[in-house]
Amino acid sequence: SYRQIIVIGYMRNIIIQTSDGVNGSPHLKMLDLTAPIVEKYSDIFGYEYYRWDGIKVNPNGKRWFAIYNKAFLFDEIYKRGGYDWIILLDCDSFISTHKIDFLKNTLDSASGKLVASTMVGGHDEWWCIDGNTIFINVKHENSQLLIENWLDRTLKMYDWDDPLFGLVGPGDNVAHYTVGLDNEMVPFHNILAEFDSNKFPIHYMNRKSGYNEDGHEISLVFDDYIRHYGRYNETYLIEERIEQIKRGIDFFIDKGDLII
């Protein structure tokens, strides 16, 4: 089939998404909306798709622990072997077109780089990349060093089995629990910062702030092909974000850009 020719004969790439998997949780609701859209794109253009719901660091832990799933999933898929690129999209992100394989140009442009991502807004340190959309080139000579250290440092961040840890966390109306800057990315940033950009070269992707169909600020990657409905302020409640995602998907279905 066409898909087999792309995956086996050319490159084997996988797109991953994750949520806490807690029944009724806002992030599970988000992923239930975005996953079918991203998976359809994967099917059309020959990417594998992997969704994982749950809490990797401690299955019995707090719901917000799921933001650390990223390090575990990259390590898990790296150890499977056989992939070229691992691409992560947050649960509150979806792809807005099923007509164009826009990722291919980025993967071609990023050939030889270890990581492709966008910069965190307001920061200019070379290593300060965003955790919402991350590409890692598994074939790069330093991919194992980065991925295994990211997981190891994540495991050592806290005493994840302490039943008292994390009792004071956000309510269901808050997007996620953060301590400082993108807390789940702190180990990742620290690893990059300890070396240099020659050892861990990064391809910086285009991202801009824009507005969705209802006038709320969102993050646009690849000129609008990846739409991230993140939390921009404390008054932007998570249930409202879920409704924004629903309306955004419906908008692109009505335009004919998404296939259901």
Description:
- The chain has 260 residues and is α/β, with parallel strands linked by helices.
- Helices cover 34% and strands 20% of the residues.
- The chain is built from 7 helices and 10 strands.
- It has helices at residues 2-9, 26-45, 69-80, 102-109, 143-155, 186-194, 238-255; strands at 13-19, 48-53, 85-89, 93-95, 115-119, 129-137, 202-204, 207-211, 217-221, 226-228.
- The strands form 2 sheets. A 6-stranded mixed beta sheet has the order 2-1-3-6-5-7, with helices on both faces.
- Helix 2 (26-45) packs parallel to helix 7 (238-255), helix 3 (69-80) packs antiparallel against helix 5 (143-155) and helix 5 crosses helix 6 (186-194).
- The radius of gyration is 18 Å and the shape is globular.
The chain-level mean pLDDT equals 84
Given helix and strand content, the structural type is alpha/beta
> In which range does the helix fraction lie?
25-40%
Large-scale geometry: globular
Q: Which residue ranges are poorly predicted, with pLDDT under 50 across at least 5 consecutive positions?
A: 1-9, 169-182
Sheet with the most strands: spatial strand order: 2-1-3-6-5-7
